Amino acid sequence: MALVHRLNGTVPDTTVRGGRSIGCGTLDVTVHQLLETGAIREIYKATGGGSGGQNVNGQFRALLESIFTKRLIENYARQNPVDWLYLMNDFEVKKRGKRLCEGGTTRVRLPNSFIGKFPSHTGWDINTVIQQHYSLNEIKVLRNEYLCLEPRIMKQLFNPVLDDVIAHLSKLFAKPELSGVKYVFLVGGFADSVILQERIRNHFGHTYRILVPQYASLAVVQGAVMFGQKPDLFESRIMTTTYGIRVHTLFRDYGLSSPESRKRKS
Question: What superkingdom does the record give (predicted)?
Fold first, then answer.
């Protein structure tokens, strides 16, 4: 909020912030109004879904399984947990970079233990396996070290998740309660992804100002700490679910005819 105040010189009427968590794989969107007193008012209930950055990682794993078989990938992840984590972490870093948006090849480093499962002297090396499913112009292993994914393949990994994010935000922005929204904040680990930022700017940048903090992945943690120091910052919230405390039972006739017999005994 303070960042917007400094950038524009005025306090915004209404802001919307969308947070994306890689760890739990969710999209979480909240809508806030910044008041002149500096307090925050929630103007629409929190919404979201399972369209987080971890889902892109799931698409990458599915790609590996489609090439090298699900059995091999499952066995490798179980037998080489450290190397598997190294592989997925490298993909995690690479998927946030600018290379994809610039039309470049994404290179994911493969552990030696993975490459070793496809010895070249057998005549069935790793690129031979890949060619059974994809052209080497799309996917290939370079220098027995890097899994190279061309932009079209990488975009296929992102598209299901990004389509869900855009659909959710489009539906949300159509709500009359959000008619005064001017700013969109992207926070959380997935917000570091350049392709996500680009897609949201292309769809909503003409209507809203899209803002991404320098360390988007830390913004959620920093916000939690700041809220802990000042818990009265929120003037009001809107519950996503309400709970009743009483039940009114409707009268049922059960074939009774006389008015007196229909009276409920106290």
Answer: Eukaryota
* Total-model pTM: 0.76
Residue 96 corresponds to which amino acid?
R
DSSP string, 141-197: EETTTEEEE-HHHHHHHHHHHHHHHHHHHHHHHTSGGGTT--EEEEESGGGG-HHHH
Cβ-contact 200, 210 below 8 angstroms: yes
Here the tokens at position 57 are 């990682």
Each residue's pLDDT tens digit, 45-56: 888 887 888 899
How far apart are the C-alpha atoms of 229 and 223, rounded to whole Å? 10
Task: Give the span between the Cα atoms of 56 and 59, in whole angstroms.
Answer: 5
> Which tokens belong to 17?
């912030």
Burial state string for 4-31 with b = 16 or more CB within 10 A and e = fewer than 16? beeeeeeebebbbbbbbbbeebbbbbbb
